[in-house]
Design brief:
about 270 residues; 2 domains; 4 helices; single chain
Length: about 270
């Protein structure tokens, strides 16, 4: 992993078929210590799978959840002196602060420190509000309902620093490279809104076509009370279906879903 002490890295662990088994935000706390932040519901299974790759290297993998505290920072809680560019790690005392993509212009970061350290200063932020900001940032993370559902480009990872096409061999590399350079990609991640509840793994259909789903909900969160009611989501859709519109959640005549472009440009060339 080409990861410096002042950097963070968005990354994916793929199957041999290029499908994402997990996604991480990785940071190097010390020259000999790398921490990978992933969804808690896939931590145990991912640790087991990654351990199969530890052969003769002087390397140990372990669950460090009990050793570190992790908090989300948003708005005024993000120090103005911290980098505004995503995936920069700034050490503040014993803590590592990781700059993230913003949500609707609101700055966001992760605060990571040994569990014995005092928690960061600021007004408490509800988990539901943080989850909504995660969705609005457009950066999708793999959780249990969507394991092996996507190649990285279906979640726009190549456009947000999550794929390195100069990296050496890794599982699924041929499929990921082919998707990028042979123009075979037919799905992208978009922001979406529905008045009905949505959950990761829910299928998306186009009206009049019940033969197969045209997309999947990747992450979803309730919109805060101060905004228009409903749920926002990151959805991975067939590009043609997004362009055609008339989308519905769960079934062809289900709740209406409106999809829009992600809040960052998609790369057209690497």
């Amino acid at each position: 992993m080409a990861l410096g002490l002042s950097e963070a890295r968005l990354a994916a662990f793929c199957s041999a078929k290029g499908r994402m088994l997990a996604s991480f935000i990785g940071v190097q706390r010390e020259p000999t210590e790398i921490l990978l932040i992933c969804s808690l519901d896939i931590l145990a299974s991912t640790l087991k799978k990654l351990s199969l790759f530890v052969l003769r290297a002087k390397l140990k993998l372990s669950d460090a959840s009990g050793e570190y505290a992790l908090f989300g920072l948003a708005g005024d809680a993000v120090d103005a002196a911290l980098a505004e560019t995503a995936w920069v790690k700034t050490d503040v005392g014993a803590a590592s602060v990781i700059s993230l993509y913003p949500a609707d212009g609101v700055r966001r970061a992760l605060w990571l420190a040994p569990a014995t350290q005092a928690r960061p200063v600021g007004e408490p932020l509800s988990e539901s509000t943080w989850a909504w900001g995660e969705v609005r940032s457009g950066i999708a993370m793999v959780s249990a309902p969507i394991v092996e559902a996507f190649v990285p480009q279906m979640l726009n990872y190549e456009s947000v620093g999550g794929v390195n096409f100069k990296k050496g061999c890794y599982p699924g590399q041929e499929v990921v490279a082919r998707s990028q350079f042979r123009g075979t990609l037919k799905r992208r991640a978009y922001l979406a809104h529905s008045n009905a509840a949505m959950n990761a793994g829910d299928e998306v259909f186009q009206a009049g076509d019940d033969s197969q789903a045209c997309g999947i909900v990747v992450q979803a969160a309730a919109v805060p009370a101060s905004s228009p009611a409903g749920f926002d989501a990151i959805v991975s859709l067939q590009i043609s279906a997004k362009e055609a519109g008339d989308l519905h959640v769960g079934r062809v005549n289900g709740p209406t879903l409106v999809a829009v472009a992600p809040p960052y440009p998609l790369l057209t060339d690497i």
